[in-house]
Design goal:
heterodimer; A: mainly beta; four-stranded antiparallel beta sheet; globular; B: mainly beta
Chain lengths: 112, 110
């Protein structure tokens, strides 16, 4: 079974630039999560989708972050404009039954 | 107070030792409890998944949940150098966000 695919793996941008990350979940998984993991910390949920709809985006900085999940499958997370403190690993996860979440490799973002 | 608290370590043990990793949580609504293992520069990997209180065993790993004290544990028997990683505990109340602890970094020394 194919896992959660994310791209790119690494990205370096200057502050105030924009960046987008892509996630393809495990086939058939209705729930998709985007997490932010700052070095030395546990993952922090940014947004959770159930099919096309947003279940929880309470910790998403909506002035600069946006996410969409078209047709209930792939998802993109965008940051515009980026700040230095956005440097982190952005993890996508998907879930099929209850709350088990399976993670992708993540995208390591460095903002300089 | 964070909803899930975890000692960040690092924890260093000799090969073959029994490892005990612990978390506490504050949200009484949490019913699902998970342990993830995260190797450096990799995404977290689901290790154990339990519902409500009790024990669950899988090979060298045992997960334990005590809802009365809001305490979550992971035991690793006969620890191996390949077990060296960061271990994340996580909890959820159902079809809701999964809340993670900060992770405990474990090093098993040959």
């Amino acid at each position: 079974e194919a896992g959660v695919a994310q791209s790119p793996r690494y990205k370096i941008i200057e502050k105030r630039q924009s960046v987008a990350f892509w996630c393809n979940p495990i086939s058939g998984h209705a729930t998709l999560y985007w997490y932010q993991q700052i070095l030395g910390q546990g993952p922090k949920l940014l947004i959770q989708f159930q099919n096309n709809g947003v279940v929880d985006d309470s910790q998403l900085p909506k002035d600069r972050f946006s996410a969409e999940r078209l047709k209930g499958v792939d998802s993109t997370l965008k940051i515009q404009p980026a700040k230095l403190e956005d440097s982190a690993v952005y993890l996508c996860a998907s879930g099929g039954a209850y709350t088990e979440a399976f993670f992708g490799q993540g995208t390591r973002l460095t903002v300089v | 107070q964070k909803e899930v608290e975890q000692d960040p370590g690092p924890l260093s043990v000799p090969e073959g030792a029994i490892v005990s990793l612990n978390c506490t949580y504050s949200n009484s609504a949490f019913q699902y409890f998970m342990w993830y293992r995260q190797y450096s520069r990799k995404g977290p990997e689901l290790l154990m998944y339990t519902y409500s209180s009790g024990n669950k065993e899988d090979g060298r790993f045992t997960a334990q949940v005590d809802k009365s004290s809001k305490y979550i544990s992971l035991f690793i028997r006969d620890s191996q150098p390949s077990d060296s990683a960061t271990y994340l505990c996580a909890s959820s109340g159902g079809y809701q966000k999964v809340t993670f602890g900060t992770g405990t970094k474990l090093q098993v020394i040959p």
